[in-house]
Amino acid sequence: MAAPRPPPTRLSGVMVPAPIQDLEALRALTALFKEPRNRETAPRTIFQRVLDILKKSSRAVELACRDPSQVEHLASSLQLITECFRCLRNACIECSVNQNSIRNLDTISVAVDLILLFRELRVEQESLLTAFRCGLQFLGNIASRNEDSQAVVWMHAFPELFISCLNHPDKKIVAYSSMILFTSLNPGRIKELEENLNIAINVIEAHQKQPESEWPVTLLDLVVAKLVGDEPLTADDLSAFLRHAELMAGSFVDQCGTVLKLTSEQHPEDAEVLATVRLLDVLCEMTANTELLGYLQVFPGLLERVIDLLRLIHVAGKDTINIFSTCDCIKEGDVSSVAEGFKSHLIRLIGNLCYKNKDNQDKVNELDGIPLILDSCRIDDNNPFLTQWVVYAIRNLTEDNAQNQDVIAKMEDQGLADTSLLKKMGFEVEKRGGKLILKSSSDGPSRE
Description:
Blueprint: E1 9-11, E2 14-16, H1 23-32, H2 36-40, H3 44-66, H4 75-91, H5 96-104, H6 107-120, H7 126-143, H8 147-157, H9 160-165, H10 171-184, H11 187-194, H12 197-206, H13 215-228, H14 235-255, H15 271-286, H16 290-297, H17 302-319, H18 342-353, H19 358-366, H20 369-375, H21 386-398, H22 402-413, H23 419-424, E3 427-432, E4 435-440
Antiparallel strand pairs: 1-2, 3-4
Helix pairs in contact: 1-4, 3-4, 3-6, 4-7, 6-7, 6-8, 7-10, 8-10, 12-13, 12-14, 13-15, 14-15, 14-16, 15-18, 17-18, 18-21
């Protein structure tokens, strides 16, 4: 005699089949959980049944991973897996009770293991891609605003799931896995992420073409923190930065013009502008490292773009009163911290790129960058240490470069360069046999 079937479950007046064993029943639950009142009254037993289906269906995926010939039999299992994830995903929306119930059933570890199996399947089925996406959506929803769930997701997903998913060709999978990473971060986990820089840089790379995303800004902050930290960079760190130096420099070259949005009266402090500011910080710190400097000194277009941008914001700051004007031209309360130090950092980067590099020294001269840098030397509360960075850049531009020294000497003779400013910078102009000579009264150049 067959065992009696359990009675149907009543969920807010709707009868749900029991046991939940077919696709239609799962779809009915998924639809029910779109309504907040249904989520709030869901019994824990339903989530156990859904988990049982998920476990059972995952065995077919495990088998297909071991035996590729079984892939053709995956269709029905993938459909069930997808609907299980959709159901659980919907149940977690703004419902901490369901998040906790589902987490306490150990559903997160089952989901992570299954998602990792998806990457092992050598099959291009849309049904697999859909299941993959829904699984990540579930993890994102169960972690949303729930610190306990975030801790469990991080424990099971870091770093393998992120390493696997952030390199996926599907943009949605990259976006969902980035969301999970970003949602789960806290100070302690950021320390773990610092030890896996490739993950942080993969997020930045993945979202290079999605400037509206906030994730790259957060992770660029992390990269800067790693570069300026007390601990010396390891060989693995340097290798990661070298592999991605092109990404950082290329991204800055492509999007640095976005900071000009800040010249408008109602300037938007959007993620794209913030990312550009952080990219400049990263490049300044990368070029302060001997192992990374040489690669960036020869990166196509970087030095030219930095000089162009310095000229644009310098002119913009003179033409109208805006965020790039010197502090005595701006009313109190108008200054935004977004662009604080931006001009100083542009000049710092120029100085670094010209450190013991004759080609770059000459290139700055060809682009009329020397007068631009000297004219930027003003006391400006919005650009701390601006004068010091100008001094630093001029020293690196004139080291063993008679032509650049001559340019500055002639500027002083023609009244185009402030003699007192040159003296403050540690330079003086002397006439020898009818020729102007720029002399340095301080130590040689350095790289900062």
